[in-house]
Design brief:
It is a single chain. By secondary structure, this protein is α/β, with parallel strands linked by helices. The protein folds into 2 domains: 5-233, P-loop containing nucleotide triphosphate hydrolases (Rossmann fold, 3-Layer(aba) Sandwich), CATH 3.40.50.300; 237-302, 2-Layer Sandwich (Alpha-Beta Plaits), CATH 3.30.70. Helix content is 36%, strand content 25%. The chain has a 6-stranded mixed β-sheet, sandwiched between helices. Strands 11-12-10-13 form a 4-stranded antiparallel β-sheet, covered by helices on one side. Strands 2-1-4 form a 3-stranded antiparallel β-sheet, with helices on one face. Helix 5 (147-158) packs parallel to helix 6 (177-192). The two termini are 38 Å apart. The model has no long low-confidence stretch (mean pLDDT 91). This is ABC transporter. Residues 7-244 form the ABC transporter domain. GO terms for molecular function: ATP binding; ATP hydrolysis activity. One of its GO terms (cellular component) is plasma membrane.
Length: 318
């Protein structure tokens, strides 16, 4: 591996044993290839059960691969897991903070896991609390913090060993919009400082904001990869026209649009009609020319969410 290639997977597989003696093994990750380069922010997108968390656990050296090859920081997780983990930071989906202890005590205990001297931990803790905007909360117990503060503390804690790669599993789940944007700012600053980020997220706007490159996974496989802009250009149109019609009128509108050979790429949802088009305003004008009067009409740019739903479907996965 070159110095700037931090993670490389080739034909990576994660297979779990059958749940009973009659079943087949469950394949969570089914032969995927990807790379992470130094200084990148790399994302895994996909519905529940797509294999994102299983992949993250293999990178984190807490779950062994069952097929293919994986190299992290130039090493084999099967043989060098401890050495790799010493150079990783991990932000799990659940904070797993000790809420009975203070903010600083949480950093101290975590730093001791890496064998760091107390003086080093104290110096790093001061910098990390300032970074996380928690410098005035160091003596408070964790259970007194808001959800956004706990999330920032979890990220600060993951940086105590000054990792080269930071793994983030759903970093802003459950946070309000203000807390999410503060966290995005902290992560962007980390990237500017040279920390490579690997994250999973269900928020498409988060992926667009944070990721230089990403892969979309479905049923254990990678179905698309590239930058957010590349994925939108490849798998969607430039704009989307969203139309809502009065109750009982949508079917008629669809028939008229199709008969007029408009909207080859149209998606009918229970509450609205999506027309994928290069020019949303021109599409809306065509709707009006046919005598159709939607209750509401919205022209917007295509987003990563449109790509995600086109590739993985709209059916809920538990």
């Amino acid at each position: 591996m070159s110095d700037d290639l931090l993670v490389e997977a080739r034909g990576l597989v994660k297979r779990y044993p059958a749940r009973d003696r009659h079943g087949s093994p469950f394949v969570a990750v089914d032969g995927i290839d990807f790379q992470l380069r130094r200084g990148e922010s790399f994302g895994f997108l996909g519905p529940n059960g797509a294999g994102k968390s299983s992949t993250m656990r293999m990178i984190a050296c807490v779950s062994p691969a069952t097929g293919g090859t994986l190299r992290v920081l130039g090493m084999d997780p099967a043989a060098d897991g401890r050495r790799i983990r010493a150079r990783l930071g991990v932000v799990p989906q659940d904070d797993a903070l000790d809420r009975e202890l203070s903010v600083r005590e949480n950093l101290l205990i975590y730093g001791r896991y890496f064998g760091l001297p107390k003086a080093v931990i104290a110096e790093r803790s001061a910098r990390l609390l300032e970074f996380a905007q928690l410098e005035e909360r160091g003596a408070e117990r964790v259970d007194a913090l808001s959800g956004g503060m706990r999330r920032r503390l979890t990220i600060a804690r993951s940086l105590i060993n000054e990792p080269e790669i930071l793994l983030l599993d759903e970093p802003t789940t459950g946070l309000d919009p203000q807390a999410r944007h503060v966290l995005w700012d902290r992560l962007f600053r980390l990237k500017q400082q040279g920390v490579s980020l690997v994250l999973t997220t269900h928020y498409m706007d988060e992926a667009e904001q944070l990721c230089d490159r990403l892969v979309v996974m479905d049923k254990g496989r990678i179905v698309a990869q590239g930058s957010p802009a590349e994925l939108i250009a490849t798998h969607s149109t430039r704009e989307v026209l969203e139309l809502r019609f009065p109750v009982g009128e949508q079917a008629t509108a669809v028939d008229k649009l199709r008969a007029a050979r408009h909207a080859d790429r149209m998606e009918e949802l229970p509450d609205r009609l999506l027309w994928y088009t290069a020019e949303g305003d021109a599409a809306l004008a065509a709707v009006h020319e046919l005598g159709l009067r939607p209750a509401t009409a919205l022209v917007r740019r295509a987003s990563l969410e449109d790509v995600f739903l086109a590739l993985t479907g709209r059916t809920l996965v538990d």
